From TrEMBL:
<keyword id="KW-0812">Transmembrane</keyword>
<dbReference type="InterPro" id="IPR016570">
    <property type="entry name" value="UCP010361"/>
</dbReference>
<feature type="transmembrane region" description="Helical">
    <location>
        <begin position="421"/>
        <end position="440"/>
    </location>
</feature>
<dbReference type="GO" id="GO:0016758">
    <property type="term" value="F:hexosyltransferase activity"/>
</dbReference>
<keyword id="KW-0808">Transferase</keyword>
<feature type="transmembrane region" description="Helical">
    <location>
        <begin position="60"/>
        <end position="77"/>
    </location>
</feature>
<dbReference type="InterPro" id="IPR018584">
    <property type="entry name" value="GT87"/>
</dbReference>
<comment type="similarity">
    <text>Belongs to the glycosyltransferase 87 family.</text>
</comment>
<keyword id="KW-1003">Cell membrane</keyword>
<feature type="transmembrane region" description="Helical">
    <location>
        <begin position="147"/>
        <end position="166"/>
    </location>
</feature>
<dbReference type="Pfam" id="PF09594">
    <property type="entry name" value="GT87"/>
</dbReference>
<feature type="compositionally biased region" description="Pro residues">
    <location>
        <begin position="517"/>
        <end position="530"/>
    </location>
</feature>
<feature type="transmembrane region" description="Helical">
    <location>
        <begin position="211"/>
        <end position="244"/>
    </location>
</feature>
<dbReference type="GO" id="GO:0005886">
    <property type="term" value="C:plasma membrane"/>
</dbReference>
<feature type="transmembrane region" description="Helical">
    <location>
        <begin position="289"/>
        <end position="307"/>
    </location>
</feature>
<feature type="transmembrane region" description="Helical">
    <location>
        <begin position="452"/>
        <end position="472"/>
    </location>
</feature>
<protein>
    <submittedName>
        <fullName>Glycosyltransferase 87 family protein</fullName>
    </submittedName>
</protein>
């Protein structure tokens, strides 16, 4: 007789939940309940759920995401305004520190010229140029982004050139090339974030309304168009969805594409390895890992062979990069006056001490997370460990660019879907943008001193650490986990969902079986015949 935990066929297609089986946030979350008061209050007990011909939770979330992305575009639009100089030529209006005063700064705008995307003869990783840096003069430079992101920029530049060509014929409105390039990039990034929202909502199954947190996140309002990170979040969220649907090969392809845009999706392979190790599903993990590596190689190998030096630029610059102003290492240096982290950089060399400290701290965090995964009374959910690993990577890294926080948004919703908690963190993280902009403006131009900016960075880091602590608490106390209280085991788990532990370690997880296994979701009753 099969165990209750394995009663479901492991390869069976996931069943679509009926509207009655979904969690209603206005009944279970105080913040969601309060937010519904202006429109009539929480959902009624006898409301006809799931019968509207169009407005499903998925479409509501996507609609709210479109609204948030439009607001984000308006926030950045000040930085693509133009003016006419004394000669009558149109110029980008970045006078008087406009990007920082208006807080509209976006890397997309300066990268158009700094990455030589405005040169029709330039091709990423193959073309080079000479540039003066702080450590060297006339240094040879190449595209400094991973392949998918670099090609994304180049394609958008070509589309902008095509737009201008048609605009010169009078068929389309015209503007500065950089403004058209920004708008085209923002369009594709918007689609990428919509995919992130869609995939997260589809992964949550019983809690589709939680995708609204991804759609209306304050971080989206500020950072969606700051850089190109929405590409990686879309690939990662879609990869997790494919894994949850028991499609490990598709998950591997999507994670490989995400890693070719930003390296952080590779961290999920480590998470999946630990979970599959505990569940005895290493063969499934192997397929995902193989397809991830194969996809990454297919994208990167042509450039490795044809333009090795240009392809290596991204890794070279990350090795040489000093600590960013909003890293914990800069906070330590500022408060203690110790310059050991960046002292080597004064000689134009690699910051070996800083890089070593980062590697050691991150590996220690990964070891601790693996220990948590193996000693928890019940196997943690994929979203919980994924959030912990990516958060540890950001907290220990020498760079936490503001748009990196977008990585955490869908993972946080999967890990701990408590609306008030997550929105509080997102608001804090989004508000760091204001002191950051005025810090870069400079004290001479009535900006903020560094201490004020670093104070907000510390608050942001403490908020993320606090969420990590709560996630670990729910891992060790599964009865406090909202996902499992609703009757699910791991909506994103795929082959891991309701799987019994097959591998144990001496001294680890002795009290695992003390927590009863959640029974499978009962099948939906048959619809009455008409």
């Amino acid at each position: 007789m099969p165990d209750q935990a394995t009663a479901e066929e492991p390869d069976a297609a996931p069943r679509t939940l009926t509207p009655a089986e979904r969690i209603v946030p206005s009944w279970n979350d105080p913040l969601a309940s309060a937010a519904t008061r202006p429109i009539g209050g929480p959902l009624g007990e006898h409301a006809a759920v799931g019968r509207h011909w169009f407005w499903s939770p998925q479409r509501v979330g996507l609609g709210l995401a479109v609204l948030a992305l439009v607001l984000c575009w308006f926030g950045k639009a000040s930085c693509i305004q133009q003016y006419q100089d004394s000669s009558g030529a149109s110029q980008l209006d970045w006078r008087a520190g406009r990007p920082f005063v208006a807080m509209c700064y976006s890397d997309i705008v300066p990268l158009y010229s700094s990455e030589r995307l405005n040169d029709p003869k330039t091709f990423p990783y193959v073309s080079s140029w000479q540039e003066d840096t702080q450590t060297a003069q006339n240094q040879t430079r190449y595209m400094e982004y991973p392949v998918v992101t670099g090609l994304f920029q180049w394609i958008n530049a070509k589309l902008a050139a095509g737009w201008l060509s048609v605009a010169n014929s009078g068929w389309l409105p015209s503007a500065l090339p950089v403004a058209i390039y920004f708008n085209i990039s923002a369009f594709w990034l918007s689609l990428a974030w919509l995919i992130t929202v869609w995939a997260t909502g589809r992964t949550m199954k019983r809690r589709p309304w939680d995708a609204v947190l991804v759609a209306i996140s304050p971080l989206v309002l500020v950072q969606a168009f700051t850089n190109f990170d929405a590409i990686a979040t879309a690939c990662t969220a879609a990869g997790i969805l494919a894994w949850s649907r028991k499609r490990p090969e598709i998950a591997g392809v999507l994670l490989g594409l995400g890693a070719a845009a930003k390296l952080y999706p590779l961290l999920l392979l480590g998470v999946l390895f630990v979970l599959c190790l505990r569940a005895g599903k290493l063969r499934t993990w192997g397929r995902t890992a193989a397809f991830t590596v194969l996809t990454w190689l297919i994208v990167n190998v042509p450039f490795i062979l044809v333009a090795t030096r240009g392809w290596w630029e991204f890794f070279r610059l990350n090795t040489l990069r000093p600590m960013d102003p909003d890293s914990i290492y800069n906070v330590i240096s500022y408060t203690t006056g110790w310059t050991g982290f960046d002292g080597v950089l004064q000689k134009g060399q690699t910051p070996a001490i800083l890089n070593t400290v980062i590697a050691v701290l991150f590996l220690l965090c990964c070891a601790g997370i693996a220990y948590v995964a193996l000693t928890a009374p019940r196997r943690p959910r994929l979203g919980q460990l994924a959030f912990l690993v990516v958060a540890a990577f950001l907290l220990t890294n020498k760079v936490w660019s503001p748009q990196y926080s977008l990585w955490l948004v869908p993972l946080a919703v999967l890990a701990i879907p408590r609306w008030r908690l997550l929105l509080s963190w997102m608001v804090i993280d989004a508000l760091v943008w204001a002191p950051r902009m005025f810090y870069y403006l400079g004290i001479d131009h009535k900006g903020l001193p560094e201490g004020w900016f670093l104070g907000t960075v510390v608050v942001r880091d403490l908020a993320v650490v606090g969420i990590c602590v709560l996630v670990i608490r729910e891992i060790y106390r599964p009865r406090t986990d909202l996902i499992r209280l609703a009757g699910d085991d791991d909506p994103a788990g795929g082959v891991l969902e309701r799987a019994r532990d097959r591998v144990t370690f001496p001294g680890f997880g002795k009290h695992r079986q003390a927590v009863p296994t959640v029974p499978p979701v009962p099948p939906a009753p048959p619809a009455p015949e008409s």
